[in-house]
Inverse folding.
């Protein structure tokens, strides 16, 4: 396991710690330790997620039904060939941060930095991934999402995990190359495989979150993403400001669409059992 803390944040935390130690000597009951701690929610980076590309899941993404008469032997063979190629094109990574939910009304969700800086921990990881680093210095104030659908979805939750995961750009580059070469069918198939792959990556991160929540006595709601229901896609800007996914090669364009395209952002609510 590799632990990394970005230098600029490390020194800022050190300065705050020095400030706190001086303050606590003068004011023994000072609340500063909790305040300073909550200013820097832990951002977890998961590297090297091993994707399992399930043939039937690929068929669903492509709009086929398993064993359907529409799925000819030639197409089935081509799909399996592209799955094999895709396995060498995928580099899955994810970033996650835990938050408190101080307020969930009928049409608004408020996220605040996790006061005790509890993040996803290594022992909660399934066997097909590894912790790449803990960035202890992600600046974060409260975030407000105005959405009735998400509010209803997170009703009863007191905490949440916000995450982004991606399979990287290489598969999409392959799709573009296929189109350029006139291989439209293979391009279509590879694109569907990429969709199945990023869903598998998101499911993996979701399982990490579930394990951590259960460890602390919580159950979780199903993951929910910007763009679902009335959750405006423009809220991706706030999500990106917090998660800073450029660390795993993910950017947001002017239309709030993610690059690479095979990327998922989502929130998972925690409800006390």
């Amino acid at each position: 396991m590799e632990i990394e803390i970005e230098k600029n944040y490390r020194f800022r935390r050190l300065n705050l710690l020095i400030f706190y130690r001086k303050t606590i000597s003068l004011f023994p009951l000072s609340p500063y330790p909790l305040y300073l701690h909550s200013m820097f929610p832990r951002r977890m980076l998961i590297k090297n997620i091993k994707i399992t590309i399930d043939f039937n899941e690929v068929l669903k993404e492509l709009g086929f039904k398993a064993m359907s008469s529409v799925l000819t032997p030639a197409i089935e063979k081509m799909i399996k060939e592209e799955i094999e190629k895709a396995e060498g094109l995928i580099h899955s990574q994810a970033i996650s941060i835990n938050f408190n939910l101080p307020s969930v009304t009928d049409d608004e969700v408020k996220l605040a930095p996790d006061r005790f800086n509890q993040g996803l921990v290594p022992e909660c990881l399934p066997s097909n991934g590894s912790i790449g680093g803990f960035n202890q210095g992600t600046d974060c104030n409260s975030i407000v999402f105005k959405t009735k659908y998400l509010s209803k979805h997170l009703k009863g939750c007191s905490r949440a995990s916000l995450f982004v995961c991606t399979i990287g750009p290489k598969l999409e580059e392959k799709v573009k190359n296929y189109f350029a070469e006139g291989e439209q069918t293979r391009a279509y198939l590879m694109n569907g495989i990429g969709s199945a792959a990023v869903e598998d990556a998101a499911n993996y991160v979701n399982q990490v979150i579930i394990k951590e929540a259960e460890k602390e006595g919580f159950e979780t709601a199903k993951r929910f993403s910007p763009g679902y229901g009335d959750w405006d896609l423009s809220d991706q800007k706030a999500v990106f400001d917090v998660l800073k996914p450029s660390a795993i090669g993910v950017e947001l364009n002017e239309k709030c669409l993610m690059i690479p395209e095979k990327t998922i952002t989502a929130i998972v609510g925690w409800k006390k059992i």
Summary: The helical segments are 7-26, 32-38, 55-62, 73-86, 148-153, 170-180, 184-215, 236-243.
